[in-house]
Design goal:
homotetramer, DNA-binding, elongated, 0% strand, mainly alpha, 210 residues
DNA sequence: AATGAATGAGCCTTCATTCAT
DNA sequence: GATGAATGAAGGCTCATTCAT
């Protein structure tokens, strides 16, 4: 609570506060004043550390990517392709449901998808591409080399969009549709469901076009 | 340009304009002035006809829900359960990709999901429930009476969330992942993919728990 | 004092108030709030009528040019070239010392010269050119066709810059140097002085280069 | 980059930087942060060394006035009165067009004239008076003892205001009116022009009132 | 019944200044 | 003695809303 601190610390507090507020409200609706208040700093702090709201937003993405990316991809994936797909889905869901940087980032991501700010350009594809590549390879292994590329891509979409339900899990119809509240056990069940459901789906469409 | 129209007509134009703008920008980012301009009405028109922005938003939802196109949604379903599921998916996608009231409503719906305004309470469940009921019945028929209710609900989510990718089709990663732009032929392909993928998935998880 | 007036009236009041404040303080130091207060309007009035401060500034120039220009050039100039020069100088000084639109414009002009805003581009040369042309022709007549063009242009500058002292007459060293306060009689004396001084000057340099 | 310089040195760098920035932008538009950056000092340096922006401004004037280049201005004038006038005009113009302290000071002076800060009271007259005195004596010699004092003062104004065109030489109409860019040769030509033009003017008005 | 005029509250940003070290 | 951190006050702009006609 020292009055004049390291400076990097206040900056970090602002970054985290901004991450939360942007994730909750979206870029436009997020108020600089709210961010500062949540970080325990003055209104002018955002300008002091980041220049303006736009730059702050970009830095929040940068920060989120740098920190979230770490947890994102199990490099040591092993086992059969089926096992790897299960692992992938688990990771994806964990990513979407996580608290802290990772979960927040997922929400940030959806916000940007629904209400594009046009402020993050590069970071966007840097985020998507490696995830997509990974999933693509797994699916290719499961379906076999004979399948159309489009078939695989459609499977990617089916899987990613099933997992994405977790992004909107709050305030959404997910809980309503399941008739119960979300808890870790249910999340596990969902992950298994998506894996089973998808593996069958993949095989089915793989046969049709392979 | 008539100075004295019916009065109800201006009101309707405002309602439509508001639907468009809210769907495009979301509640907060939508500007009353824009809505009025698009409706060819005065700045004060919104407040004159609807009291304020919030009431206008509620009326837009009400209007959308009362709209026959949305409400009568897949009444005429017939054939085997598999066929009815295909029809359902097609309807859902058509709904999401349609222009005019229907597609706009879908976007409104997503906007509300991501950025809840807390203004529409009742209308929300009125929308979801009948759709869900319908899908539930179809799935129950396919899976059989022995299955857990939760299993069916998970399948509902899998299907709905696959279809939901169309809502964010613009500015999203869908086109990026498919490596091509969306056109009617591709939408058809996607619908078939989701149906095939899901039917296989349903059967698989049905067996596991049934 | 009607609460809701013509609208053009408030706009005009803003335009005049802005003219005064910009002339007194310069573009940057002029406060929108001050302008509005002086015009008896709300802070948002500037945005309502002119969009923003910059546009207001441009409109003030436009307005000043349209109104000042009327009084600016005696089209019916007659008499010998010497007489026309005297007339020109009188006009110029009257222009610089006038109250209301004309005098204010001169100050605006000087402000722009010292602290260019880069906002008025076109209006600038439109202002200068006709004045310059007129003086140029008079001087050419006095000096004779044999003189270098540069010589004439130097005489233009000598005259214009002598007259320009009136622009800075307040807060300046003019009163201090003259040892007395400015009054209409003194202005007359100054005009005669500048005319006599300049006519002799013109003839002298005309001989040298002619 | 030394952490421990004399301390006086930083102060001096600030003074010079401030002189430049104030001259370029005027008091209000000059930013403390800019001044500090240009001086290679910390944002807090101005307040540390000078208390606040106002005091810094006053010290800049004081510094400029105390500066030998400005104060010793045309001490060594000799020759006939005509020659001394030519010298005076040359000095004045050199002063206005000079780079470094002197030219900067001229601009500071004009800024203050157009946009009085009310901060320099005393220094103001200290600047004007000795210059004026000098010119006055020269003119008195040329015109002769019989002339009205007012006549001489009017001539002073004519000369000073002709020379003053150099202060606003950038961004002004001077280049536009001359139809060419300013270079040392042209400045020389202008100095000669003003001298010739003025000498003739002086003699003419001297005769009229003498 | 309908509208152009006008406003107030709130937001982002700037900047001189202060403070703790 | 000097500085990076932090702040408060104020300015420009946006926008939903209100008012008089």
């Amino acid at each position: 609570m020292a009055k004049r601190e390291d400076g990097k610390e206040t900056r970090l507090r602002l970054l985290n506060a901004a991450g939360e507020v942007f994730a909750e409200k979206g870029y436009r609706a997020a108020k600089v004043a709210d961010i500062c208040k949540r970080a325990g700093a003055n209104v002018a702090a955002v300008n002091y550390y980041f220049g303006n709201k736009k730059s702050l937003y970009r830095e929040v993405w940068q920060h989120a990517l740098e920190n979230a990316e770490v947890a994102l991809f199990f490099e040591s994936a092993a086992g059969s392709s089926q096992d790897r797909l299960r692992q992938y889905i688990h990771e994806l869901i964990k990513n979407f449901t996580a608290t802290g940087n990772v979960g927040r980032f997922s929400r940030l991501y959806l916000m940007e998808m629904v209400n594009p700010t046009g402020l993050i350009q590069g970071a966007w594809h840097e985020t998507i591409e490696p995830r997509r590549r990974k999933l693509h390879d797994i699916l290719r292994n499961i379906i076999g080399p004979g399948a159309e590329d489009l078939t695989i891509r459609l499977c990617e979409l089916s899987i990613v969009n099933q997992c994405r339900m977790f992004v909107t899990i709050k305030h959404s119809d997910v809980e309503y549709m399941l008739g119960r509240t979300i808890d870790p056990k249910l999340i596990d069940r969902l992950a298994r469901h998506i894996a089973d459901f998808s593996l069958a789906g993949i095989r089915a469409v793989g046969k049709l076009t392979g």
